[in-house]
């Protein structure tokens, strides 16, 4: 260690503030991450990580500003930096055992160190010709995710380094969609959605795979995972429409038709957005906005994210070309069930309709806020009363559920979260033979408010006011 005498400073990286905690359903996000930077790269593939802070996400999966190669990182930024909200469940599908390429590099030693400029290099299996790790050198990653070799023996000769580096381009849509291996029982990709509740005791609130769902096969696969999760739950998913081939807002309608996505559980988004100088899939930022809006609203998802502020600087295409939509153009996208973003003295999310619109006009399935309210209420009913299953089917059980639900509904109604919620137990729905068979039926009526999407103020000139003002009525 060098002898120190004098005065010095040291700068630490900016600390990301602790996020606020969402409680009504956790976002589940699939994609790729620079797992060579993770604490345990071998254990970072097709595993679910519940991350409450940015630091946890980085420790489990690594981090890079290269959003295109490492798609999960844009979600990390959107949730933990842009909106400061968590937790999220992250799942990386990039496998360091197969999504790699050979790596060779010659490095000069300067002041006892050799610094690589190549990112994604795996330290496991890395070799330096003629040198032994921890005897002749040590190796660590710098802040850019590149290897730094520190010489321990005073060596000044160039280093020839060989090994493997991550190759995100080898990850395919099929890796994200995932599969179930009947021989091994191993699940990958979207198949892991079912593990969220058993692993963490949390119900999925949103599913997304930023950077991937513009591929219709990925989008459809994600939509199919929204229903019957664990045989119990349901949620919504976010789908990005392609911005590489769909370069005009007038092309979006055909792109939606080609995608085949018309589910009430899907929210379609176009185009991409720019955050902190980097292009990001809109789904990543929109998901964080949804989570933050819910948190600000007592964790009740009855508010529409539309017309809420986005911390972005532009809306863009895949090649970075800026897209400036105005209200009529944004409304045309809303009319076909697509959410966009408009610069209304600051960028705002714009759109209230699920992908089911305009074919479906049922309020609970058309409006994003109503659809999410129904999914949330249904999921919470299941988790609240799971402990009642197998209890005696007597009047006390029925009364406790009905009364508790009506008290809960009245509370939300008094808070202005909905127009009303009512549960009833009707004997007509519960014939004796059915009750003897162990089945009880309740009916619950939910009335979340629909969004005030169109506000009209009719202006009319009133000549009598001029007459009065000029004294004409005297």
Describe this structure in words.
With 474 residues, this protein is of the alpha/beta class. The protein folds into three domains: 20-94 and 171-350; 100-166, no CATH class; 413-474, no CATH class. Helix content is 26%, strand content 21%. The strands form six sheets. Strands 3-5-2-12-13-14-19-20 form an eight-stranded mixed β-sheet, sandwiched between helices. Helix 2 (72-83) packs parallel to helix 7. The mean pLDDT is 94.
What is Rg?
27 Å
- What does the main sheet amount to? 8 strands, mixed
- Strand line-up of the largest beta sheet: 3-5-2-12-13-14-19-20
Structural class: alpha/beta
Report how far apart the termini are: 98 Å
Average pLDDT, to the nearest integer?
94
Low-confidence stretches: none
Integer count of domains: 3
- The amount of helix comes to 25-40%
Number of strands: 22
* Backbone shape: globular
- How large a portion of the residues is in β-strands, by DSSP E? 15-25%
Q: What count of helical segments does DSSP give? A: 13
Q: Brief overview, please?
A:
With 474 residues, the protein is an alpha/beta fold. The protein has helices spanning 54-61, 72-83, 173-177, 196-200, 216-224, 252-259, 282-296, 327-335, 363-366, 368-385, 395-414, 432-436, 463-469; strands at residues 20-21, 26-31, 48-51, 85-86, 88-92, 100-107, 113-119, 127-128, 137-141, 146-151, 159-166, 204-208, 236-240, 266-269, 272-275, 278-280, 314-316, 322-323, 338-343, 347-350, 420-424, 443-447.
List its salient traits.
474 residues, eight-stranded mixed β-sheet, four-stranded antiparallel β-sheet, 13 helices
């Amino acid at each position: 260690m060098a002898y120190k005498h004098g005065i010095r400073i040291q700068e630490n990286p900016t600390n990301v503030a602790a996020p606020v905690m969402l409680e009504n359903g956790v976002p589940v996000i699939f994609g790729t991450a620079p797992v060579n930077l993770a604490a345990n790269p071998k254990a970072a593939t097709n595993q679910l990580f519940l991350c409450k802070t940015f630091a946890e996400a980085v420790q489990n999966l690594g981090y890079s500003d290269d959003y295109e190669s490492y798609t999960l990182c844009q979600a990390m930024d959107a949730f933990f930096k842009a909106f400061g909200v968590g937790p999220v469940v992250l799942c990386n599908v990039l496998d360091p055992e197969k999504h790699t390429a050979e790596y060779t590099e010659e490095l000069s030693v300067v002041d006892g160190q050799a610094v690589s400029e190549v990112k994604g290099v795996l330290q496991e299996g890395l070799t330096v010709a003629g040198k032994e790790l921890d005897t002749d050198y040590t190796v660590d990653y710098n802040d850019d995710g590149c290897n730094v070799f520190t010489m321990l023996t005073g060596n000044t000769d160039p280093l020839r380094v060989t090994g493997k580096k991550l190759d995100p381009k080898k990850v395919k849509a099929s890796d994200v969609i995932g599969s179930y291996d009947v021989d091994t029982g191993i699940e990958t990709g979207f198949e892991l959605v079912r593990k969220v509740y058993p692993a963490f005791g949390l119900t999925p609130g949103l599913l997304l795979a930023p950077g991937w769902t513009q591929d219709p096969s990925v989008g459809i696969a994600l939509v199919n995972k929204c229903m019957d999760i664990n045989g119990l739950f349901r949620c919504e998913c976010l789908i990005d429409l392609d911005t590489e081939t769909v370069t005009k807002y007038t092309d979006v309608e055909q792109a939606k038709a080609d995608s085949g996505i018309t589910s009430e559980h899907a929210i379609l988004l176009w185009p991409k957005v720019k955050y902190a100088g980097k292009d990001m899939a809109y789904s990543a930022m929109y998901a964080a906005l949804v989570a933050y809006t819910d948190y600000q609203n007592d964790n009740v998802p009855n508010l529409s994210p539309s017309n809420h502020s986005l911390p972005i600087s532009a809306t863009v295409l895949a090649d970075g070309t800026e897209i400036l939509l105005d209200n009529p153009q944004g409304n045309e996208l809303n009319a076909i069930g697509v959410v966009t973003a408009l610069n209304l003295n600051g960028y705002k999310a714009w759109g209230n309709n699920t992908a089911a619109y305009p074919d479906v006009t049922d309020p609970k399935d058309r409006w994003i806020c109503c659809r999410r309210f129904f999914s949330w209420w249904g999921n919470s009913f299941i988790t609240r009363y799971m402990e009642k299953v197998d209890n005696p089917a007597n009047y006390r059980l029925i009364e406790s559920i009905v009364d508790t639900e009506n008290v809960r509904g009245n509370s939300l109604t008094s808070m202005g979260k909905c127009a009303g919620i009512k549960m009833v137990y009707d004997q007509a729905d519960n014939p004796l033979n059915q009750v003897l068979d162990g089945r009880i039926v309740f009916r619950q009526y939910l009335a979340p408010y629909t969004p005030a999407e169109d506000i009209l103020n009719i202006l009319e000139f009133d000549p009598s006011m001029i007459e009065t003002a000029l004294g004409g009525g005297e």
